[in-house]
Amino acid sequence: MKNYILFLCCLLVVACNDDVLVKPNAKLRLDYPRAVYKKSQTNCDYDFDVNNQASLVKTRNCGVKLSYPDMKAAVYITYQKVRNNNLDSLLYDAQKLAYNHDRIAISIPEKLFENKDHNTYGVFYSINGNAASQSHFYLTDSLQNFVTGSLYFDVKPNFDSIYPAVVYLRKDIMHLMETLEWK
Question: If you placed Cys at 49, which of 4, 5, 164, 179 could pair as Cys (CB 3.0 to 4.6 Å)?
């Protein structure tokens, strides 16, 4: 009986001695195709290069929706004529739209934009955090034309999960801003 109890104790000591296996940290890897651009045909007072992954849908008053179905995202672009010295109010509204997300956003860094060759000036806002929109921008020629844009996803905002798509689409938006030309 003593040998049996001693055997069980030894068996328990040996059986409970597991080696700890440390697992490496896993990160989500999403690969998106390399962007290939073509000139848009808006039939409005502006044109820009659009990614072939996006479908361009014209909306009212020369607005545009760039839909990215694989990412469940869209960039909404609105166009307005500068009239009766209303540039200040258009700028105020565009900045206000970006900063409406400041309660939820972690940060909203601004990047000034200037392209003297195309006579475009504006600001790009990166909205970081679980805000409803992840990017805003506006462009103007300061005299006649004003364009604003916003990036939205068709999912509940979880910045960690959508971050790879946000980075990809922010590059697309910057390319759009760089290639926008007034007619």
Answer: 179
Task: Give the span between the Cα atoms of 174 and 59, in whole angstroms.
Answer: 21
Lowest mean pLDDT among 4-8, 15-19, 69-73, 116-120: 15-19
Long-range contacts, stretch 137-143, CB < 8 angstroms, 24+ apart? 137/113, 137/173, 137/177, 138/90, 138/91, 138/94, 139/113, 139/177, 139/180, 140/82, 140/87, 140/90, 140/91, 141/182, 142/82, 142/87, 143/82
Is a pLDDT exceeding 80 seen at residue 167?
yes
CA distances from 158 to 50, 68, 101, 108, 149 (A): 26, 18, 14, 16, 21
What digits encode the pLDDT tens for the residues 85-102?
A: 899 999 999 999 999 988
Question: For 167, phi and psi rounded to 5 degrees?
Answer: -60, -45
Residues 6+ away with beta carbon under 8 Å from 78: 61, 63, 147, 148, 149
Contact 74, 63 (CB under 8 A): no
